[in-house]
Fold this protein.
Amino acid sequence: MRKRTIRWFGVSVLLVVLAAPALAVLPTPTTKRPVATYSIVARDPTTGDLGVAVQSHWFSVGSVVTWARPGVGAVATQSFVEPSYGPRGLDRMGSGEAPQAALNALLAADPHPEVRQVAFVDAQGRVATHTGAGCIPGAGHHIGAGFSTQANLMLTDDVPEHMARAFESAEGPLAERMLAALLAAQAAGGDIRGRQSAAILVVRGTAGPTPWNDRLVDVRVDDDVAPLDELARLLRLHRAYERMNRGDEAVAAGEMDRALTEYAAAERMVPGNDEFVFWHAVTLVTNGRTDEALPLFDRAFRMNPSWMMLVPRLVTVGQLPDEPGLVERILATTRPHLPRAAPAPTD
């Protein structure tokens, strides 16, 4: 038996090499990067939506760990991460292979399966998970009904179980339930090194005729001292913009009452967003409710005076009525200093 200590990306690792060294096949630190993290893959049994969420003390973890394809499944690939498990796993599941068979095939072709941690869920809710013996403790996973939680290099060994309980007890859309699992992981100790980045990706469980509408949630925090707090803020903002988009669709369909309901809801969700306030006011005017709109214009102009310059432009494209005195009346609600044009450069 021989012992030696090496450092992999800032982590001291004691290698114990026996006659048949199980760890001797570990990838060298120059060829692979360890993404020690906690994650969840899941299918929503009600909507069929598929998702994956992750947090790590590593830059831009969402760019390498999270993979999902509408109508196919979701994948998390981490530890000494091999990103190809994502697209290759989705390809295999998309061709009809069960998650366990797909994962087994990829592990069999991998020269270093012992350092991988991978989880698959497909559109039927079938789950397959692998935590290699070479993953840095605490490492493990928990398979539930239509989901799997997994973690490595944790402060405690029970992070996957805490995540599972939080996910099962949470309510609401899939993204919010997965966020609850991430928050539970952090509350249980989380990554032994701390926090840095996080991501949530959700796609439809059935691919539709317009693929650009099949990615439902895609929010990432690449570098932050409190990535889950920021991820929660972005998810809330995402939901607010969903309401704004539905309001825009209602305007296009001439359903002004529905549009106003959606805009007002978005504004309540993010009250400091001047964009929401301004377009809510515009919609009130186009619905013949100018008196109600004027206080909102006042708020928007005070938050961002540049909106004042946009008002007359909206008349030219029919987004505000071309009524005598209307623009002047709107602009008279507030008289902040308008932004000055930048001076022309001089030689």
The CA atoms of residues 285 and 293 lie 6 Å apart. The mean pLDDT is 88. The domain at 241-331 is CATH 1.25.40.10 (Serine Threonine Protein Phosphatase 5, Tetratricopeptide repeat). The first helix runs from residue 62 to 65.
